[in-house]
Amino acid sequence: MMRWIGLRNLGLFFLATCLLVAAVPASRAATTEAVTTSDETVPLGHLTLLLKPLTKAEITVEIEAWQSLLQAKVWQISQTQIVLSDANEALEHLDEIAAALTKIQERQTSLQEAQQAARTEPSAEAAEGVTKAEHELQEAVVALRQAVHEVVADETESAQTGYRQAVLAEAAAVVAVAAEGGKADGKLAEVDLSAILLAPQLTELTLDPSASDEATLQRFGSIEEEAHERHDAVKALLVEYLQLLMTQRRGLTDRLEEALSAWEAKGATVEETVPFRAYMDAVSGIHLETTDTATRWSLLLGWFESEDGGLLVLTRFVKFVVVLAAFMLLAVVLGKATEKALSRMPNLSQLLRDFIIRSVRRIVLIVGLIIALSALGINIGPILALVGAAGFVIAFALQDTLGNFASGIMIMIYKPFDVGDAIDAAGVQGNVESVNLTSTIIKTFDNKHVVVPNNAIWGNVITNITGSDQRRIDMVFGISYTDDMDKAARILNEIVAAEELILSEPEPVIRVRELGDSSVNLICRPWVKTEDYWDVHDTITHAVKARFDAEGISIPFPQTDVHFYQETVAAEPAATAVAATAATTAVAETGRAADSTAVGELGDSDRVGEDDDDS
Q1: Full DSSP string of 429-467
Q2: Chunked in runs of 10, what are the mean pLDDT values of the chain (615 residues)?
Q3: Contact 73/248 with Cβ under 8 angstroms?
Q4: Can you tell me the distance from the alpha carbon of 111 to that of 118, in angstroms, rounded to the nearest whole number?
Q5: Count of alpha carbons within 13 angstroms of residue 220, beta-carbon side
Q6: Count of Cβ atoms closer than 10 Å to residue 232 Cβ
Q7: From CA 31, how far away is CA 34, in angstroms rounded?
């Protein structure tokens, strides 16, 4: 019985779990409304946390909702810009009315002067002046009526549509609310929008066709001045409202960008996010008429003073500079610390030390640049993705460079030579000045700088001339067969013993090596420090020649003896043939002698060249 009850409870628990698991996805899948757009001013950090548990499909809904809010905000901005443009046109018309009133007053003064002149000195010319003044006054009145007509027509159209009044009412309400928080000028909200229409007043004045009496002009002037003041206030209201809208638009753009970043983290491709970012780029910025300098300056000034505008950009720029400077300082400090740590490893070559130090500094700088760009507000995700995608193409295009890179790493690790060493590699002889990841810079013995790819060096025989602390000097001195060999060996021993730069260990080797064709050859092989090689070589060579000459020991040069044999033959033709043969033999022997001498000289030049190559 107890067993049956246990099984029943286990079954009920399993059924409840299945129903719960099935119900949660169903309820979540049924939710197609955005859950993060209820508050347009939600902090970005909170938005990140709200987007984190959502799937890619659910984030798609959030992105579309944020874009809808951004679109609605851009629509409001466009409407406000239209009304602001109309306000600018109204101000221009009012300026035309003011100019026309001034022109009428001037023409009235001119007419009065012309009439006075005609009464004082009546003449045809004076009468013509009066007529001209009356005509000019009439033109000024027509200009005034035209300006008034444009204002009346414009305001009549606005009154019929109610479009401008609706925007102004909304602007006044929003600015009034913002003023309570200290974010706007509260005086702008006190504008009496009901008294902004001037058409009824101006229409009454246009009933007077002359519009030239003093009372009418004064009334026109007062109405125009009052209207200009009100329109200035309305324009300031619209500019303030537009600044608030643009600030809200920037906030929506940032939140849409945050949603796009979360979408990419859940698997969205760059191609999927491109339309949304293109829309954000298209609706960002300030788009105004270039002629409206005052409004543009007001908006720019408001943007600079806004916490989400200029102040935000300034803060991000300061963070960028501070982070970059901090990482530059950190790169120097870590470079010094790395250099100090590597100095305790004597087995590392100077090339590898320099490479590690440079790599540490560059890696720190690259990381600092990435963090600084993030602090600047730049989304580095697409940049890193683009770099990763282009990596394969770059690697394929730079195969030779990558090969040089690998060879440079091998040279630094196995250190066949170091900076300052004299080497013979890739057909180039000289001292190593520096090695980077792609090439080795060699300064030849005649002071030429040669840049050799690392592949060419690592793939060929490398001779490190100064790779050891000590070197043996191999010299051969020939004496004549008639000279005393022991005396020559004793002279060589004395010369070597007198040279202070020659090492005592290993001991020098001086002995007879071979019996040559023209000389008895003695070898002299002292050991010296590598840096003293050529000094000792040249000193001993000079000393040997001087002592051999002083001691009467000759240094023979290659020569060939030619022997002529003459035989007596009975027949004259035969004798002639023998003589010709002998002459031919002599010429041949002479040629061989010359060839032998040339070969000897060539051998000497080759030896000198080889000695030069040991530089």
Answers
A1: EEEEEEE-SSEEEEE-TTS-EEEEEHHHHHTS-EEETTS
A2: 47 49 40 81 88 90 92 87 77 78 81 83 83 84 77 65 64 63 44 45 48 65 72 75 82 89 88 88 65 58 58 79 91 88 76 80 88 77 67 62 79 82 90 85 91 88 88 93 92 92 91 90 94 92 93 83 70 48 43 38 36 41
A3: yes
A4: 10
A5: 29
A6: 15
A7: 8
**What is the C-alpha to C-alpha distance for residues 44 and 3, in angstroms, rounded to an integer?**
56
The residues, ordered by sequence, that sit 6+ positions from 430 with a Cβ below 8 Å of its Cβ are 422, 423, 442, 443, 444, 445, 448, 450
Contact of 519 with 555, CB cutoff 8 Å: yes
pLDDT score of 163: 54
CA atoms of 61 and 163, how far apart (whole Å): 33
The Cα 425–Cα 416 span in angstroms is 11
Strands 422-425 and 428-435, bridge-based pairing = antiparallel
Q: Give the three-state DSSP class for 182.
A: coil
Nearest alpha-carbon partner for 317 in 254, 380, 381, 378 = 378
Closest-CA residue to 70 (of 268, 281, 267, 272): 281
The b-or-e profile of 31-52 (16+ CB within 10 A means b, else e) is eeebebbeeeeeeeeebeebbe
The secondary structure of 272-312 as a DSSP string is: HHHHHHHHHHHH-S----TT-HHHHHHHHHHHHHSTTTHHH
Q: Residue 480's pLDDT is what?
A: 92
Q: What does the alpha-carbon distance between residue 391 and residue 273 come to, in Å, rounded to a whole number?
A: 22
Q: What is the pTM of this model?
A: 0.47
Measured between alpha carbons, how far is 515 from 541 in angstroms, rounded to an integer?
21
CA distances (Å), origin 266, targets 58, 230, 269, 401: 10, 54, 9, 37
Using CA atoms, how far apart are residues 144 and 447, in angstroms rounded to an integer?
Answer: 89
Measured CA to CA in angstroms, residue 146 lies from 87, 117, 206 at distances of 18, 32, 10
Please answer whether residues 425 and 461 qualify as being in contact, where contact means their C-beta atoms are separated by less than 8 angstroms.
yes
State the CB neighbour count (10 A cutoff) for residue 438.
18
**pLDDT score for 557:** 78
3-state secondary structure of 524: strand
Tokens describing residue 268: 């969205």
Q: Are 530 and 567 in contact (CB under 8 A)?
A: no
- Cα–Cα nearest to 537, from 460, 588, 456, 471: 471
What integer pLDDT is reported at residue 601 of this predicted model? 35
> Mapped to the 3 state alphabet, what secondary structure does 123-167 carry?
CHHHHHHHHHHHHHHHHHHHHHHHHHHHHHHHHHHHHHHCHHHHH
Stretch (H or E) spanning 559: none
Rounded Cα–Cα distance for residues 215 and 212 (Å): 8
pLDDT value of residue 594: 38
What whole-number distance in Å separates Cα of residue 366 and Cα of residue 387? Answer: 14
pLDDT score of 106: 83
Q: Which 8-state DSSP code applies to residue 348?
A: S
Angle at Cα 419 formed by Cα 413 and Cα 425, nearest 5°? 80
- pLDDT given for residue 573 in this prediction: 52
pLDDT of amino acid 395 = 60
| Spatial separation of the C-alpha atoms in residues 306 and 299, rounded to whole Å | 10
One-letter amino acid for residue 66 of the chain? W
For the chain, what is the radius of gyration of the CA atoms? 52
